[in-house]
Amino acid sequence: MGRYLIEAFDRGERSDRYATERYQGAAGRNWWRCDPTLRLLMRRHLGDGLAWAEPHLDALGELTGGLVAECAEETDRNPPRLEKYDKWGRDISQVVMPPSFHTARQALMGANFTSPSFAAQARAHGADPAALGAAWTYLLDQADIGMGCALGTGGDMVVSLAEKHAPEDVRDRVREIFASGYYSGEAAQMFTERSGGSDLAALETEAVPAGDAWLLSGFKWFASNANGSAFVVLARMPGGAVAPFLVLWERRDGSRNGVRIRRLKDKLGTRSVASAEVEFERAEAFLLAGTGSGEGSGLGTMMKLTNASRLGVAMMGLGVARRALVEAICYARSREAFGRPLIEQPLMRRRLGELIVEVEAAQALVFDGHVGPRLRLAPALIKLRTARLGVTAASDAIEVHGGNGYIEQWPVARLLRDAQVNPIWEGGDNILCLDVRRAMLKERAHLPFLDHLRALATSDLVRGRVDDLTKAIEAWSALEHSVAEERLYPLAQFMADVYAAALLEDQATWGLDDGRKSLVARLYAEAHLADQGPLRGIDRPAEDLEHFDALVSGAFAN
């Protein structure tokens, strides 16, 4: 029995209505077992390696849906705090993480699919480490995207740049810090200043040479994972070029480096990652770029790694959307109104059916970004679509819950608070659109992208829209500069629509789900690419309602 008292209104004829044990949401379930779409992706991408990987995936599904989800709620209620000074009044700038954070992190590191040792085991058993790493972050982000940020922020960037450019003794220190892999919570990116995060021309942090090291002075306005051990910091060199630098908490001689945390940010959400204002006062740093005429070359490398970070944020948007979908389905099955469960009511079935299709389209995009061909345009387009979907899906889940959804004791309120950061992290919509323009004009990146779509699409509708998209890009290229910039957003949305539709059609050819994915692909293409006609599709056949049970059973298994 539960720990609550049985009140008078809980008894009698109404007792079934108040049997709250019926209202189990996502938490407490095994998220691997209840996700047929993830199992389909792993069957496709792991092949014979799935037999070895499945016990690990099953254990991870139990962990993320259980302990990690539980700890996420506790950390949200008791976020990190800053111990600014010690008892002698000396600045220690120590971020104190709550016990729930450490519990979840320790458990996740014990089941870390991204560690070098696990990746080696996966390869030895014929399983793709990239696919397993994507599954790991996908399940983690359903529980807590703040933890996903804390563990994954910039680790690949720090290690890759340090291996190329840092002095040998510093490289050794970085290797020690990241012995458990990129996703170990040891890195932070410090780019944003009070003047803004995307406008590098306004950057004020300065670096001056000091032997084979540099001394950094400046102030970063928004730095996530401030309790990490290794930071990539953007600073301006004497000649004016902006370059990335590595900063550690200790100097080479073991003394405290010139790094101060002014305060932690009191954020709307993602409270399990400590975000702070960080000041550098002649902090020892190491240039993560080439020397001589190529001084700023590290910036280009860093921007390429930023595209990988964008895929990480896109996965966070997908994780929130998937969790919101599961919470909405669970609640709609249990909650009764007008004499029957919500999930049996046509308007609710419409909303849930549309959300299922949108989440699976986002899933197709994100996993293609992680395990598909490395397309220059993909990260920006995928983040553009999935980061925003996390917000709208969480909002939908709140509405499905009604007033309960607006209460912090229910999980969907936190989902919405957390999701709102994803359109900001690693570039807002406008910055992503500008990156799409840069990739098309400077790298002709739309050509391999369009080829990829042509290879995936199977229906006349989607193939026709690939041709239309080709014409749209040509027409956009001929526009006057300011007009072309203003129309980047609808062009990028068109690209994302066709991209997702083509991926879903390709999944339908895998033959792994008795034709259900064909239904999802068709519903998505009809919603996003078909001409709805003067009646806005109101007169079309009610196939979405007729196939609702197939949509739900293929999206969520009890």
UniProtKB/TrEMBL annotation:
<dbReference type="InterPro" id="IPR009075">
    <property type="entry name" value="AcylCo_DH/oxidase_C"/>
</dbReference>
<dbReference type="InterPro" id="IPR041504">
    <property type="entry name" value="AidB_N"/>
</dbReference>
<feature type="domain" description="Acyl-CoA oxidase/dehydrogenase middle">
    <location>
        <begin position="188"/>
        <end position="282"/>
    </location>
</feature>
<dbReference type="InterPro" id="IPR036250">
    <property type="entry name" value="AcylCo_DH-like_C"/>
</dbReference>
<keyword id="KW-0285">Flavoprotein</keyword>
<protein>
    <submittedName>
        <fullName>DNA alkylation response protein</fullName>
    </submittedName>
</protein>
<dbReference type="Pfam" id="PF18158">
    <property type="entry name" value="AidB_N"/>
</dbReference>
<feature type="domain" description="Acyl-CoA dehydrogenase/oxidase C-terminal">
    <location>
        <begin position="296"/>
        <end position="441"/>
    </location>
</feature>
<dbReference type="Pfam" id="PF02770">
    <property type="entry name" value="Acyl-CoA_dh_M"/>
</dbReference>
<dbReference type="InterPro" id="IPR052904">
    <property type="entry name" value="Acyl-CoA_dehydrogenase-like"/>
</dbReference>
<keyword id="KW-0274">FAD</keyword>
<comment type="similarity">
    <text>Belongs to the acyl-CoA dehydrogenase family.</text>
</comment>
<feature type="domain" description="Adaptive response protein AidB N-terminal">
    <location>
        <begin position="27"/>
        <end position="162"/>
    </location>
</feature>
<dbReference type="InterPro" id="IPR009100">
    <property type="entry name" value="AcylCoA_DH/oxidase_NM_dom_sf"/>
</dbReference>
<dbReference type="InterPro" id="IPR006091">
    <property type="entry name" value="Acyl-CoA_Oxase/DH_mid-dom"/>
</dbReference>
<keyword id="KW-0560">Oxidoreductase</keyword>
<dbReference type="Pfam" id="PF00441">
    <property type="entry name" value="Acyl-CoA_dh_1"/>
</dbReference>
